[in-house]
Write a structure and sequence with these properties.
- With 538 residues, the chain is mainly beta.
- The protein has three domains: 261 residues, no CATH class; 151 residues, no CATH class; 75 residues, no CATH class.
- Helices cover 4% and strands 34% of the residues.
- The protein has a nine-stranded mixed sheet, with no helix packed on it. A five-stranded mixed barrel has the order 2-3-4-8-7. The protein has a five-stranded mixed barrel with strand order 9-10-11-17-16.
């Protein structure tokens, strides 16, 4: 059994923008039973972690274009439609380049990064070619820095961190927050942003934290009020553990509808990327966990919740005669909450491959764990497939807008660890990763950012009803065309538009695409659509 995609837990992500890193591969035929095995008789799963030496984009004009990455001198194909998991968002490869000829993340770029970036690629080796399935990028997957805030520059949003309070300022950090959710609108590189839909800047209990945009001594920040960090009446220092007053409490100084400010003396753990400005080098951080225990009044809204651990067993995949697979089917979700008296429901976010419509599938309920403020969902038995891209946890008594644009009471993030099957007995061939059992890889996730139709990358092209009918008709007309697999002939040339107000449905491979214009009549006989003569795609 292989554990994959379990990056450090400071990198809790959320939804995004589009889906998660994907990829491909269709097996030819099942391995026959035999006493001698060839390691090339089928696909082989792999996992590579290392520095990005080279990163290329096939088609700069295509936001969903594929490309290649070189890691430790190994070239890996990144298929078209691959979605990459970043520290706080999702990006396609085209978005990662953002119109530039180079990404700025590879050591071979003309302007290489100050500190090398790392990539994790999970995929399959097909006929000797490494092909990516799940892709994740960060500057350092093992990065987990820590220290005490010794000074705050409210005019710039800089935090100075050193070992203990009172020591000289040593390390400078800024929030990577291009929309200004948790402080000033600043970012060294928006591709490595904090998650602005979920509080990745938070207290230990998951309560959202912030950096005041003004000096609290002269002007309070209404979205980051100093009242949310009450002082110890004896020492005058900010309290490290307290409960917010219930909303509407007469004379209350705290307000759970607002974030709580980070303050000098707070111990924090953090992660981010290296940046440089006129003041010198600094760290642009996407995640901060402050050593502060902030609770909300029991049974009241708003309350806050996070995810810290998420993993699922993806099953055994296809059966290979003579090869026993080691696989898991369980699920584990853990996190923290500001109100441990309330149960936390756990949902899979299922996405319709044709329309992009999302459906929440209830998996179960997490209850308080032995550790205070924590919840845990780890059922002994149950079937939690199909595999999901994202997990949403939601507090039982409801959600509401709060904390400068966040949704209190829920947290949405990519699933952190997929437990992929492996070969059980030593000496037998390695089996491929079963990406065909991942709906978002095998079928896709609907329109990408409301535009082009994003297919899966395994590739099963025709997942929508009209396209299925079209494929069946065209298979009869053109038996030489194979409509599944990444190694077959290209799909037919795009069809002409027949209706004035069409809906575009696209099914694409890495270098070819099929476009079918569907009119207002869903039952239009596709086989009657005029088809130009087949020719290779340009």
């Amino acid at each position: 059994m292989k554990r994959v995609f379990s990056g450090h837990r400071l990198r809790k992500l959320s939804r995004a923008w589009a889906p998660l890193a994907l990829a491909l591969m269709v097996l030819g035929t099942l391995l026959p039973v035999a006493t001698a095995w060839s390691q090339t008789s089928g696909g082989t799963g792999f996992e590579i972690i290392g520095r990005i030496q080279s990163l290329t984009l096939n088609n700069p004009a295509d936001v969903l274009s594929g490309g290649t990455v070189v890691v430790n001198n190994i070239t890996v194909v990144i298929p078209r439609n691959t979605i990459i998991t970043m520290p706080g968002t999702f990006l396609s490869l085209g978005e990662l380049f953002n119109g530039a000829t180079q990404s700025g993340l590879a050591t071979s770029d003309s302007l290489p990064p100050q500190t090398p970036y790392e990539i994790t690629v999970i995929g399959n080796i097909v006929n000797g070619t490494y092909i990516a399935g799940l892709v994740q990028i960060a500057q350092s997957f093992g990065q987990a820095l820590a220290g005490t805030i010794t000074a705050i520059d409210y005019a710039t949003g800089d935090l100075w961190v050193s070992g203990t309070t009172g020591r000289p300022m040593r390390w400078r950090i800024q929030l990577n927050d291009p929309v200004g959710r948790f402080g000033r609108m600043i970012s060294a590189d928006a591709r490595f942003t904090a998650d602005t839909d979920n509080p990745t800047i938070h207290a230990q209990t998951g309560y959202p934290m912030c950096v005041p945009r003004t000096n609290p001594a002269t002007q309070d920040d209404p979205e980051c009020p100093k009242g949310n960090r009450p002082l110890d009446p004896v020492t005058g220092a900010p309290l490290k553990k307290f409960t917010m007053a219930a909303p509407g409490t007469p004379g209350a100084l705290t307000n759970p509808m607002k974030q709580a400010p980070l303050m000098v003396g707070d111990f924090i753990t953090y992660s981010g990327i290296q940046g440089t400005d006129a003041r010198g080098p600094y760290l642009s951080v996407s995640h901060i966990n402050a050593w502060v225990g902030i609770s909300t009044a029991p049974g009241t809204l708003p309350a806050y919740v996070t995810q810290e651990v998420s993993q699922i067993g993806v099953g055994s995949g296809p059966v290979f005669p003579g090869i026993a697979a080691d696989f898991k089917l369980g699920i584990l979700i853990e996190g923290v909450t500001t109100d441990p008296t309330r149960p936390v429901d756990v949902y899979a976010v299922d996405v319709d491959a044709c329309s992009g419509r999302e459906t929440l599938r209830l998996l179960g309920t997490g209850f308080p764990a032995p550790i205070p403020q924590r919840y845990k969902f780890e059922p002994v038995v149950g079937n939690f497939l199909p595999v999901m891209r994202e997990i949403l946890v939601k507090m039982r008594q409801g959600t509401m807008p709060a904390a400068n644009g966040l949704i209190a009471g829920q947290y949405r993030a990519p699933l952190g660890t997929y437990l992929l099957p492996g070969t059980l007995s030593p000496g037998l061939p390695l089996i491929p990763n079963n990406f065909g059992d991942f709906p978002f890889l095998a079928k896709g996730s609907g329109p990408f950012h409301g535009g082009r139709w994003q297919t899966g990358v395994t590739v099963r092209l025709f997942v929508c009803p009209m396209l299925m009918r079209f494929a069946q008709c065209e298979t009869k007309r053109r038996p030489h065309i194979r409509f599944s697999g990444v190694l077959g002939p290209p799909p037919p040339w795009p069809l002409r538009q027949l209706h004035r107000h069409p809906t575009v449905i696209k099914a694409m491979t890495d270098s070819n695409e099929l476009v079918h214009w569907r009119g207002r009549h869903a039952d239009y006989p596709v086989k009657q659509v005029p088809m130009p003569r087949w020719r290779p795609s340009s």
